[in-house]
Specification:
The protein is an alpha/beta fold and 305 residues long. The N terminus is likely disordered.
């Protein structure tokens, strides 16, 4: 209390331990100021001076949740039926595999051969689109989908554009067809999506591939269409490949996506996607990490938001 007038001051003698308490209280009272001073000067800290700023991330119009080959477990994979099923589960982004027919028509199929997912035989890329379009790509899955056809990329584009869906196209070249496949699909993407993208009604598909030659060819034909490099093994030169192809994203097996790799991808200004994630614990880990895209078969268990 402040003395007023002639009121005599009272002096209370301090015992040794009281003096120590008072000193500690005085020190404690200065701590918030010290902490504030550290925050204010943090931008000038040695660590801030040597840590390079992260480059800005590319614009990313794609949803995090991506239906693998459509809803490839609940309907015949890579068919319009699979896309419709995934859409009913709330998915707005899809991954699919695209090849090129003998007469240069892009179509959806994963395997090199036709046997597993159609009633055809032999190498798919050796058949004309007229042959491919007449094959049954549904009965192998179940009788419910008997007669479901192999779709062209044009049919998938129509479905996506009409429903405001986005697409991740994995280029699937045959042996020795890497450059040709990349070029043909890039031209078709320009033709199918170009008018809608120019009008602001759609986003380009994301072109991805394990084969750098196919992406290099797509880059040459359609540099405006975004690209992503796929990896199932991380080599010492992975970042050089991504940089050379001017990719916007890196796609890996989810088991390869460690915090260290994720940080390297972000430090280079790239987006990160993972395949094929069906375990809820792994999904939690990857969301906590901050990955930009999760490709999944489990469209019935993971609700996109």
């Amino acid at each position: 209390m402040v003395p007023q007038g002639n009121t005599p001051q009272r002096h209370i003698p301090l015992r040794p331990h009281s003096a120590a308490v008072l000193m500690l209280r005085c020190i404690h009272a200065t701590l918030p100021i010290q902490r504030r001073s550290l925050r204010e000067s943090s931008s000038e800290s040695p660590m801030a001076a040597i840590t390079p700023p992260r480059p800005p991330l590319p614009a990313w119009p794609y949803p995090r949740w991506i239906a693998h080959r459509g809803a490839g477990k609940f309907a015949p994979e890579n068919t319009l039926a699979a896309f419709r099923v995934a859409s009913r589960y709330g998915y707005r982004s899809f991954e699919c595999d695209v090849k090129v027919s003998a007469d240069d028509i892009p179509f959806l199929l994963h395997d090199a051969s036709l046997q597993r997912t159609s009633n055809g035989r032999g190498l798919a890329t050796e058949r004309t689109w007229n042959d491919l379009s007449q094959m049954d790509a549904g009965t192998w899955h179940s009788r419910l989908y008997a007669g479901e056809g192999i779709p062209s990329l044009s049919a998938i584009a129509s479905f996506c554009l009409q429903n405001n869906h986005t697409l991740n196209i994995e280029l699937k070249p045959g042996p020795g067809e890497e450059s040709h496949t990349g070029a043909v699909i890039a031209r078709e993407v320009q033709r199918l999506w170009g008018p809608a993208v120019k009008a602001g009604r759609a986003h380009w598909p994301l072109l991805s591939c394990f084969e750098s030659e196919a992406l290099a060819s797509a880059q040459e034909i359609a540099p405006e269409v975004p690209r992503a490099m796929l990896f199932e093994v991380i080599s010492s030169s992975w970042a050089d490949v991504v940089r050379r192809l001017q990719c916007v994203a890196v796609v890996t097996d989810h088991k390869l996506m460690t915090y260290a790799l994720f940080d390297q991808i972000r430090q280079n200004g790239w987006r990160s996607l993972v395949y094929t994630v069906n375990d809820s614990n792994e999904v939690e880990r990857l969301i906590h990490m901050g990955v930009d895209g999760i490709i999944t078969d489990a469209v019935d268990r993971f609700v996109p938001n």
